[in-house]
């Protein structure tokens, strides 16, 4: 993924550890502890926001300009700066000269040594000037989508998003925002608290619904126009179809956080920053199925026959499965069905299958229900749980015994208590449950956003929102389908595994795991 | 003064190295004391203690892809130096791994008496391939291996060595060393230097 702007010299040093010449940055952390390039990049500790972070008992301070150059103050409360852990008041301001000394020699504004963690950099005058100029740019200032009176968020829906899912997700979003605002007292003053307590700010939230239309090539332009007309702080949830890439690219280019959209097919770019996903969706399922085929396939199987509708996500998933199986000596056959086709195409795709075939179904419920009789000699069937409807998949009885289902969520009986939270809330708020998995994901995403915003108090910086979500996600209870969520720099997919399951009975939603939780 | 590779491995070589770099261990705490400039450098919070830990009988997956038993990996007779890392860690782990890399370098041929082990605390993300890639950044030699596996196995290992803090972002820098199977462990909390680690090793050798 390419950034919309060319990085300035300071930004390249800060984020990548590369000098304007293209050479790697050099630094030392004590004798013989030399580091270079990406390992030496400031971003590793001070983060993209420049606001630092906490890791265990270590607090990395902010280095955005305002935290370095502010006048000395008695306490943090006396500084009219957005609160971040690690900010210091009782220190003389840096000057450009003393800041350069800190970066080169590890001596602070007060003449004392900086932490052992802070490397000592080899930078010439021009490189140092570029870096310091960049640090000044990092200072939190006016942010789009944030006013004293309101926080603005957008939810993006592509035209090929499933309409039932879209409505279900929208219901959840609108009710969540309404709930949030219900508890905000109008005209509440900005509260300041005593030392060590964060500033608390009550601000209502406004939801902007951005429905895209037309072909994908036009979406980025539509989104730019929307953002320009309706500035938002971040994008939350939403629903995509077969092609989320234009939305992903837009958010990266605008440095706009995009938190947990409901997409079966996300964009996999682990070193991107702004787009966070719950899972890799059908791509994860392809990896689960590949593992199953590699380790447990029937000895007779020589071919893998994949069936999918041309314009749906199954095509990409099939490609991923084919890649994952390269080197296994299996013949991979893709049988692509026309998007608007019906049961006849499907029947055609199931001809000529026998015991040497492993059939892989990347199909939606409508097609599963139309599967008809099980081909006589076929003994090996795999399918996408996510596309098919999980334990509600209308897989015909005859198919249930032999079909193994990729299930990239916690098992129903294991997640029941945690999912009761959102289901209870849906019931109280009278939200029809039409797409339970997507709607619980949406409620979970809103909760995560809410927690992160609460922790940010009045430090509204977009990059900082992403960083807070990364830091807090792992120790937050997962009130949803996933057994565990975790993110980190370089990790954009919070849930990384799944099960293989099969139906327990010829009818009904009971499923049994046929594998352990796998993280392929 | 640096000790060249022409000096054969053994206690004498290591003592010379440590003496030359002026960091021979303080007896009581096992910590090195470097000469400090007058303007009071910030102390690194490093503490060392002796402890007993029971190695859990869990299966881990090594960075070469092989499923292995943790006790067997630890009990082949070699000295064990153990730490816990995750590949997405931006600050602490690259530094701690670099300390181990420098320790590996300083030991020279004597490294073959030591088994360096790094266990992932983010096993769902840290596949063997990711660990192998991380290992390359620190020029990990054949005596240094990385481990992943199921979340349960990783947590069991973390709990056994009292390093589990609930989530990876809460982890603290810890290095553990055991001279030989059956011996107690040295637990070093904090960001230690390669010389600190070397001093600890020498101390254990001398006490043997």
Secondary structure tally: strands of chain A: 18
H/I helix tally of chain B: 6
Helical content class of chain A: 25-40%
Stretches of chain B where pLDDT is under 50 for at least 5 consecutive residues are 1-11, 18-42
Which architecture of chain B per CATH? 3-Layer(aba) Sandwich
Describe the structure.
- The complex is a heterodimer of chains A (520) and B (208).
- Chain A has 520 residues and is an alpha/beta fold.
- Chain A has 3 domains: 9-137, no CATH class; 146-278 and 412-489, Response regulator (Rossmann fold, 3-Layer(aba) Sandwich); 282-407 and 500-513, Rossmann fold (3-Layer(aba) Sandwich), CATH 3.40.50.2300.
- In chain A, 34% of the residues lie in helices and 15% in strands.
- In chain A, helix 1 (9-16) crosses helix 5 (125-137) and helix 16 packs across helix 17 (462-472).
- The longest helix of chain A has 21 residues, at 436-456.
- Chain A starts with 8 loop residues before the first helix and ends in a 7-residue tail after the last strand.
- The two termini of chain B are 28 Å apart.
- Chain B contains 6 helices and 8 strands.
- Chain B has a single domain, classed as Glutaredoxin, CATH 3.40.30.
- Chain B has helices at 11-20, 70-74, 92-107, 128-137, 151-160, 194-207, and strands at 47-51, 59-62, 67-69, 79-85, 114-120, 144-148, 174-178, 185-189.
- Chain B has an 8-stranded mixed sheet, with helices on both faces.
- In chain B, 31% of the residues lie in helices and 20% in strands.
- Chain B has 208 residues and is an alpha+beta fold.
- Classes of the chains: A alpha/beta (520), B alpha+beta (208).
- The A-B interface holds A 29-33, 35, 39, 43-45, 53-58, 60, 111-117, 470-471, 474-475, 484, 486, 488-491, 496-497, 516-517, 519 and B 21, 39-42, 44, 86-92, 94-95, 98-99, 102, 122-125, 127, 137, 150-151, 165-173, 191, 193-194.
């Amino acid at each position: 993924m390419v950034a919309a702007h060319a990085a300035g010299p300071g930004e390249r040093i800060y984020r990548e550890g590369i000098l304007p010449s293209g050479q790697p940055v050099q630094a030392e952390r004590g004798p013989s502890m030399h580091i270079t390039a990406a390992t030496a990049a400031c971003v590793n500790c001070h983060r993209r926001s420049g606001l630092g972070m906490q890791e265990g008992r270590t607090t990395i301070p902010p280095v955005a300009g305002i935290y370095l150059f502010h006048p000395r103050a008695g306490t943090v409360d006396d500084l009219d700066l957005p609160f971040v852990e690690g900010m210091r008041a009782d220190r003389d301001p840096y000057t450009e000269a003393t800041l350069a000394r800190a970066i080169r020699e590890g001596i602070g504004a007060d003449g004392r040594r900086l932490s052992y963690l802070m490397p000592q950099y080899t930078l010439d005058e021009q490189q140092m000037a570029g870096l310091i100029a960049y640090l000044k740019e990092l200072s939190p200032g006016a942010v789009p989508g944030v006013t004293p009176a309101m926080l603005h968020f957008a939810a993006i829906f592509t035209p090929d998003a499933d309409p039932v899912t879209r409505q279900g997700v929208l219901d959840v979003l609108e009710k969540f925002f309404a709930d949030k605002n219900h508890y905000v007292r109008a005209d509440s003053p900005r509260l300041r608290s005593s030392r060590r307590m964060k500033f608390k700010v009550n601000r209502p939230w406004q939801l902007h619904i951005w429905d895209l239309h037309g072909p994908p090539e036009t979406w980025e332009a539509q989104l730019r126009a929307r953002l320009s007309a309706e500035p938002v702080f971040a994008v939350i949830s939403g629903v995509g179809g077969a092609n989320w890439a234009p939305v992903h690219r837009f958010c990266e280019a605008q440095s706009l956080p995009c938190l947990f959209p409901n997409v079966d097919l996300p964009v996999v770019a682990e070193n991107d920053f702004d787009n966070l996903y719950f899972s890799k969706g059908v791509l994860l399922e392809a990896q689960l199925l590949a593992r199953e085929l590699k380790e447990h396939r029937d000895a007779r199987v020589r071919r893998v026959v994949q069936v999918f509708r041309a314009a749906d996500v199954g095509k990409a998933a099939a490609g991923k499965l084919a890649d994952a199986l390269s080197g296994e000596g299996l013949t991979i056959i893709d049988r692509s069905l026309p998007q608007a086709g019906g049961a006849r195409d499907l029947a055609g795709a199931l001809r000529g299958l026998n015991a040497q075939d492993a059939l892989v179904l990347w199909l939606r419920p409508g097609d599963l229900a139309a599967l008809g009789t099980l081909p006589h000699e076929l003994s090996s069937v795999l399918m996408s749980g996510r596309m098919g409807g999980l334990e509600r998949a209308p897989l015909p009885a005859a198919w249930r015994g032999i079909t193994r289902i990729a299930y990239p969520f916690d098992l129903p009986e294991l997640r029941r208590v945690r999912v009761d939270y959102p289901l209870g809330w849906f019931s109280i708020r009278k939200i029809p449950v039409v797409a339970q998995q997507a709607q619980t994901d949406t409620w979970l995403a809103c909760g995560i956003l809410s927690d992160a915003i609460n922790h940010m108090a009045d430090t509204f910086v977009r990059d900082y929102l992403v960083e807070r979500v990364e830091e807090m996600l792992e120790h937050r209870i997962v009130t949803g389908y996933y057994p565990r969520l975790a993110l980190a720099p370089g990790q954009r997919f919070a849930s990384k595994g799944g099960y293989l399951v099969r139906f327990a009975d010829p009818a009904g939603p009971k499923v049994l795991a046929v594998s352990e939780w796998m993280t392929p | 003064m640096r000790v060249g590779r022409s000096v054969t491995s053994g206690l004498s070589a290591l003592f010379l190295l440590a003496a030359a770099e002026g960091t021979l261990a303080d007896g009581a705490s096992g910590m090195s004391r470097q000469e400090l400039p007058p303007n009071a450098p910030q102390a690194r919070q490093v503490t060392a203690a002796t402890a007993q830990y029971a190695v859990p009988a869990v299966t881990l997956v090594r960075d070469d892809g092989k499923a292995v038993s943790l006790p067997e990996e630890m009990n082949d007779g070699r000295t064990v130096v153990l730490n816990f890392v995750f590949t997405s860690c931006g600050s602490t782990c690259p530094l701690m791994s670099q300390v181990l890399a420098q320790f590996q370098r300083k030991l020279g041929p004597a490294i073959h008496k030591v088994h360096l082990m790094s266990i992932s605390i983010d096993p769902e993300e840290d596949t063997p391939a990711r660990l192998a890639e991380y290992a390359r950044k620190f020029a990990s030699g054949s005596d240094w291996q990385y481990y992943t596996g199921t979340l349960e196995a990783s947590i069991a290992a973390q709990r056994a060595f009292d390093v589990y803090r609930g989530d990876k972002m809460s982890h603290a820098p810890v290095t553990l060393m055991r001279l030989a199977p059956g011996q107690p462990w040295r637990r070093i909390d904090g960001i230690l230097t390669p010389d600190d680690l070397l001093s600890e090793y020498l101390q254990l050798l001398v006490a043997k």
